[in-house]
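Tokens for chain A. Residues wanted.
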């Protein structure tokens, strides 16, 4: 692997710059180091992090104060700590694809020592790395009075060597320290980014699979099918609708114990909203954030995903105001029919209805047929076709995710008054 300022001389399509903390590493190297120094220092480190993300202190202050808390460090133990930090998945595979397409890959971190980045660079096959330049004496090192690196200067030196310009740079980052770099890059990708970084990102990718950045860098025709944007969209929609499907369980739980169902559903919706607010701020919340990131649609990366909230509220209100014989088919239709319609429509739908992007003829047919099957087993025969037609028309609503709220409530209300 090449060290800073020494790229291989050849023709490159572009330069891809990866931040490390929070991008390749799922945790912060300095935070893990200070954590090993005791709870008091660790809490002080967390306070510094809060001050940095709320724009109270600079990145320089964060790192210098943080490394003062760390004190004298055993280089071997620091490397072991770095090796134990969880990585996002498929980093090496991503770098391999970038190499095959002619990109030069650099790891640049303001807060990680060079010897740690060297190990990571060798691990994933990067071409270049640059971080804190520290001296190791008798196996120990300290970070004191060190000039923190300028990512802009490092990238400019690389561009000169590679005969490339800023328009050829792709930056992948998550925290505010990278905003200047992202603004100067030809393309910027926020990977699980903080709130402020989202505003400066051309694209936002959430989740744990690093391969998902590739369609934002390499054109579709140069990627295999399993790495194209459409594949990742399908995979996210499948996960999303699988979660959606579990909504039908609340109909049966409510039949057994209505208060428990309402309390559980209300709690999940509340926790979900908290999780979403924290995700937008760049903070993961329990297991919910992990699930949410895997199910995000592309247009939902810059705000709260409201669909599950509307589904939860629609289900809750349906259980609260209607009887089991009415809310059972209503909730089954919004859970099962909507899931089948979305997945089949996305996979096989060619003909759009009324020009609506996410509404296809085959998807609506699947919705109608599956709704008829559900109604066949739950309501008198004469109400099957009218109720199925009504729910299918509601599903066609052009207002984003509003069908999650309307389908269970309107269907239950229709059956309640019609029966």
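Reply:
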């Amino acid at each position: 692997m090449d060290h800073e300022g020494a790229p291989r001389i050849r023709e490159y399509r572009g330069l891809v710059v990866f931040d490390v903390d929070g991008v390749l590493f799922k945790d912060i190297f300095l935070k893990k180091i200070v954590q090993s120094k005791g709870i008091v220092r660790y809490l002080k480190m967390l306070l510094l992090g809060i001050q940095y993300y709320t724009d109270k202190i600079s990145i320089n202050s964060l790192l210098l104060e943080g490394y003062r808390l760390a004190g004298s460090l055993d280089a071997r133990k620091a490397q072991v700590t770095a090796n134990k930090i969880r990585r996002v998945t498929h980093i090496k595979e991503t770098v391999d694809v970038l190499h095959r397409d002619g990109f030069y890959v650099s790891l640049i971190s303001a807060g990680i020592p060079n010897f740690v980045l060297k190990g990571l660079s060798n691990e994933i096959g990067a071409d270049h790395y640059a971080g804190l330049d520290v001296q190791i004496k008798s196996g120990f090192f300290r970070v004191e009075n060190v000039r923190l690196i300028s990512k802009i200067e490092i990238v400019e030196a690389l561009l000169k060597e590679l005969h490339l310009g800023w328009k050829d740079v792709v930056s992948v980052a998550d925290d505010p320290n990278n905003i200047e770099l992202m603004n100067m890059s030809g393309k910027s990708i926020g990977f699980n980014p903080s709130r402020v970084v989202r505003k400066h990102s051309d694209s936002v990718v959430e989740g744990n699979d690093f391969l998902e950045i590739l369609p934002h860098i390499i054109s579709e025709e140069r990627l295999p099918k399993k790495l194209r944007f459409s594949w990742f969209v399908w995979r996210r929609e499948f996960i999303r609708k699988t979660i959606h499907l579990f909504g039908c369980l609340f109909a049966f739980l409510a039949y057994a114990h209505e208060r428990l169902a309402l309390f559980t559903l209300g709690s999940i919706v509340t926790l979900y909203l908290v999780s979403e607010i924290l995700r937008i701020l760049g903070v993961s919340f329990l297991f919910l954030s992990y699930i949410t990131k895997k199910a995000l649609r592309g247009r939902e990366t810059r705000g709260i995903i409201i669909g599950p909230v509307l589904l939860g509220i629609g289900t809750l209100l349906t259980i609260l105001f209607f009887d089991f014989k009415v809310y059972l088919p209503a909730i089954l239709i919004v859970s099962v029919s909507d899931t089948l319609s979305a997945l089949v429509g996305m996979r096989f739908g060619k003909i759009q209805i009324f020009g609506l992007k996410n509404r296809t003829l085959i998807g609506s047919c699947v919705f109608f047929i599956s709704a008829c099957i559900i109604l066949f087993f739950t309501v008198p025969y004469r109400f099957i076709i009218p109720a199925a037609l009504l729910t299918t028309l509601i599903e066609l609503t052009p207002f984003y995710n509003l069908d999650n709220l309307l389908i269970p409530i309107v269907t239950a209300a229709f059956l309640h008054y019609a029966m």
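The longest strand covers residues 103-113. The chain has a mean pLDDT of 86.
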